Amino acid sequence: MTNLYLIGNWKQHGSRAAIQAFSEQWSFDPNPQLRIAIAPPFLYLQALREALPDCHVAAQDCSVHAQGAHTGEVSADMLVDLGCQYVIVGHSERRQYHGETDALIAEKLAAAQSAGVTPILCVGEQQAAREAGKQDEVVRAQLRSALATSQPNLLIAYEPVWAIGTGLTATPAQANDMHDMIRQEVSSLLGSSHATPILYGGSVNAENADALFACPHVDGALVGGASLEAASFMAIAQSASNNLSH
Ligand code: PEP
Questions:
Q1: Which of 43, 179, 211, 222 could form a disulfide with 217 if both were Cys (CB 3.0 to 4.6 A apart)?
Q2: pLDDT digits (tens, 9 = 90+) for 113-122
Q3: Residue 92: CB within 6 Å of ligand 1?
């Protein structure tokens, strides 16, 4: 195994006090093969970077615009300026509740790549598509659209929408099969010489992380709820580290 990635998505949670408490509890031996990042709300990026120098910071979104009259937007260049390593693009909550289309997501991906911050492209099917056996079709279409103009520097997170924040997790076999399909699709879209890391996201916690990290096609995890507490995020990081040493 080469590298594993563990990204915590704090969504709209956090405060200066929460960052302080998290950093006081955080104690994890850095492993050069395990890349850990946390994505707090924009305005806490700097505080988190200072409080947790061993971790990278990620943003939860970015603008398609480099600068200008776009009230409320944050550009990918600004994220780079702040020392941000990654940016989540196309999270299902942005697609569902903020009207983000595949075309907009492709533009955000390009904006991040040209600024030099690594995008984490989220893809995943709704429950109805999974029940109809259409999950591959849905995810393939998302990938084709988002990657049409993409450079090779990105991570992908497979996040079945029915598993996000619900306590339901894809089984290791479901995750592994989907990651295998994604890997083949990505290599035909971007060229097989680029090994794009594929993370799983959807109710990952300290109990199920081991089995997911043990899957050959799972290169890491995007974790929501269980990344808010240092203890549970450290336990997931420990599972990842254990899997690297196998
Ligand atoms: C997420 O926010 O991307 C996520 C996977 O959330 P959770 O781990 O809470 O399901």
A1: 179
A2: 999 999 999 9
A3: no
